[in-house]
Amino acid sequence: MNKEITTREKDYSQWYNDLVIKGGLADYSAVRGCMVIKPYGFALWENMRDELDRKFKETGHVNAYFPLFIPKSFLSKEAAHVEGFAKECAVVTHYRLKNDPDGNGIIVDPDAKLEEELIVRPTSETIIWHTYKDWIQSYRDLPLLINQWANVVRWEMRTRLFLRTAEFLWQEGHTAHATRGEAIEETEKMLEVYADFVEDFMAVPVIKGIKTAGERFAGAEETYCIEALMQDGKALQAGTSHFLGQNFAKAFDVQYLTKENKLEYVWATSWGVSTRLIGALIMAHSDDKGLILPPRIAPFQVVIVPVYKGEESKVPINAKAAALVQEMKALGIRVKFDDNDNNRPGWKFAEYELKGVPLRIALGLRDIENNVVEMADRLTGEKKSVSMDGLGALVQKKLSEIQDSMFTKAKNFRENLIRKADTWESFVSFLDDGGGFISAHWDGTTETEDSIKDKTKATIRCIPLNNTMEDGVCIFSGKPSKQRVLFARAY
RNA sequence: CGGGAUGUAGCGUAGCCCGGUUAUCGCGCCUGGUUUGGGACCAGGAGGUCGCAAGUUCGAAUCUUGCCAUCCCGACCA
Is ipTM strictly over 0.90? Predict the structure, then answer.
C-alpha cells in the first residue's frame, strides 16, 4: 500500500519523513525549505501551544505581537547577536514589482529599492528591545514579562520537516528585570516550565542544563537548555532559555530609574520553543507502524470505528456510538467517531495507528449484543473486549496509563543511553554503538570542544544543572577537569 | 558554497544504454454496483508541456549542450 512506512531499521531519516507526511502532520511546500502544517499537525501544535500559553500566563506573562520586519540597523546593534544570525537572514530590499519591459512576466522594480533593507526576523530581540526602550523608564515598569507567538525565518542550508525549516512557528518570551538575580531566576523558571511541559504533556524526558560558551545563544550571557534523546541515539535541543545580562539593554539603551533615583540598565531574558518540539515528539515515541501521540496533547485521544454488517446494522451501531461519544465528551475526552463509509474498518485501523491515536474502539453488532467494545492500545498494540458500562471512566484511566507508560518507556530508553566514558576509546565506541548521552570529563576549553566535534561530530549538549563536582581528566586533552559534561551527536 | 545523485500523471515507477505507431505499471482520483471484525472486489472512466531551452535527426522521454529544480553527504543551525 502507498501508506506503508519505511522502518527505522532500514532508513531512520526516511522513517521520520514518512511519519510526518503519511501521518498527516505536514508536508514540504512549494517554497524551498518551508513546510505546510496540515490540519492534523496544526491541531497537535494548538494543543501544545494552548498548554504552554496557560503556563506562561500562570507565571505572570502576557502576550503581545511585534513586527515581522526588522530594520537592518537594529540587528547590528548587538555585536554577538548579529554575528550569530547574519548568515541565515532573509532580506527585503524592494517594495514593488512591475511588468518586465521585455515581456518576460514580472520583475522587481529597480526604482523601488528600500533605503534601509528590512530583515525578516530570525528572532525578535532587537525589535523588541528597541520597543522596550520606550516602555521602560522606572523600576515601577519592571519586571516586563512579555511573550509572543510568531513565525520566524532562518535561511538554513539544509532543512528537515519540523526539525529545521526555513520558516517555523514558535513562541519567544522577552523579559526585562531590575536585577541580575531576578533575571536569572526568570531564566531558570522558564526552563522549568519547558521541562515540565515536555515531560508531563509530551512524555519526553529531558535533561536540564547550561550550554558551553561555544553553543551559547548569540548575545546571551548564559544559555539554559533542555535536551531530549531520540530513538536513533541522537540528542535534540528541545527548548532554550537565555540570560541576556545587560547586553541588549546596553545595545538599545534601555535604562530605568531605581527607587534611589539612580539610572541603571535593565537585565534581560529570552526563551523559546518551536514547532521543533513536534519533531522531538515524533522521534521519541513513534514506531514502525506510525506515530504514537501522547494522550494529553493528541488531537484525538480516542477514535471509534464502527463495524457495519449490512445497511440495517448502521442504526443501532450509530446510536450506540453516539451515546459513547456523548459520555466521553462529558468527561472531557477528545473523541472522534469515524463513520465515513468510504473506508472499511481495516483501513481505518491502520490509518489511526499511522496517525498515532492513543486508543481505538471498534464497535459492531456482535459487541452490542454482548454489551462490550473492542479497545486497542496504540502503544502496546494490545486489543481486548471491555464492557460498555462505565466505558468513559475506563478510557480516562487508560489514557492516563498510556501517558505514563510512554514517559516511562522513553525514560528507560534514555537512561540506558547515558553512559560514562573515561577513555577516548570508550567515548568513541559509545558514539558508534547506540549513541546517546556520554558523560565525560572536559577541560573547559572551546578548542577541545571543537576538536572533539571535528573528530566525532559529537558536541557538548549541556552541563547538567546540579551537576556533581568530581575531579578527573579531560577525555580528549588529558588536562584536569572538575566535572563531567554530556556529549552527544545531535540534530 | 564543495562532492554525489535524480527529474516521466497527485504519489511511487517502467521505458533511456541500443532514437521509430496511441509512453508502462501500481496506488490514489471519478462513475456504478457488491461489500465492511486488520489497508475490499468487479466493471467503466478521467488525468501527461516525459524539469526547461536549444541542437543533432525524416523522427527525441531516449543522443548532445546549456540552464533550472530537488534530494543525499559536508560546511551552517533551534
Answer: no
> CA A85, A96, A36 angle in degrees (round to 5)?
55
CA of A157 to C1' of B47 (A): 36
pTM of the model: 0.95
- Is residue A276's beta carbon less than 7 angstroms from any atom in nucleic acid strand B? yes
A163-183: per-residue pLDDT in tens? 888 889 999 999 999 999 999
**Cα–Cα distance for residue pair A45/A29, rounded to 1 Å:** 18
Tens digit of each residue's pLDDT (9 = 90 or more) over A25-59: 988 776 777 888 989 999 999 999 999 999 999 99
The torsion defined by the Cα of A489, A240, A408 and A46, in degrees rounded to 10, comes to -120
Which bin fits A328, alpha (ψ -120 to 50), beta or left (φ > 0)? alpha
| Residue A159 approaches strand B within 7 Å at CB | yes
Q: CA-CA distance, A458 to A473, in Å (whole number)?
A: 18
CB contact at 8 A, A52 and A198:
no
A344 confidence band (pLDDT: 50, 70, 90) = very high
| A318 C-beta neighbours (distance < 10 Å), count | 15
